[in-house]
């Protein structure tokens, strides 16, 4: 059976593993998921990610990051643009998550960017997710 929204599946797996205090989470790999994981790593929300060969295709393994006393680094993660309702943001009206404390992940013509990177480049695009 084909999956209609693989990014939502990725975010849900991350959210569930984070709330259960798992050290890592594994999911099917795609380039888009790899770029989302790269942004999460660069912003400090996850410890590491790697791609491994599976029986069929490849799998993406994300190592979650916890602070002292097992404090979660990801407080929340939410899918914004869905297959049934796409959400776009202009370069002049980019979303701010928690007043700038979180990040918005956007799919732009320049690739996947955070809201701050998109503002610097002056581009808009589809709002994939909010992470805080």
UniProtKB/TrEMBL annotation:
It comes from the Bacteria. Keywords: Ribonucleoprotein, Ribosomal protein, RNA-binding, rRNA-binding. One of the primary rRNA binding proteins, it binds directly to 16S rRNA central domain where it helps coordinate assembly of the platform of the 30S subunit. Transmembrane segments: none annotated. SUPFAM superfamilies: Ribosomal protein S8. One of its GO terms (molecular function) is structural constituent of ribosome. This is Small ribosomal subunit protein uS8. Part of the 30S ribosomal subunit. Contacts proteins S5 and S12. Belongs to the universal ribosomal protein uS8 family. It holds the Pfam family Ribosomal_S8. GO terms for biological process: translation. One of its GO terms (cellular component) is ribonucleoprotein complex.
């Amino acid at each position: 059976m084909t999956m209609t929204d693989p990014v939502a599946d990725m975010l849900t797996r991350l959210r569930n593993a984070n709330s259960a205090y798992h050290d890592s989470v594994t999911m099917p790999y795609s380039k888009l998921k790899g770029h989302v994981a790269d942004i999460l790593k660069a912003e400090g929300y996850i410890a590491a990610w790697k791609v491994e060969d599976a029986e069929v295709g490849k799998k993406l393994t994300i190592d979650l990051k916890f602070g002292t006393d097992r404090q979660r680094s990801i407080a929340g993660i939410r899918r914004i643009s869905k297959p049934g309702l796409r959400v776009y943001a202009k370069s002049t009206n980019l979303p701010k998550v928690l007043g700038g404390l979180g990040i918005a992940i956007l799919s732009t013509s320049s690739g996947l960017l955070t809201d701050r990177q998109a503002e610097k480049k002056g581009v808009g695009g589809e709002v994939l997710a909010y992470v805080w």
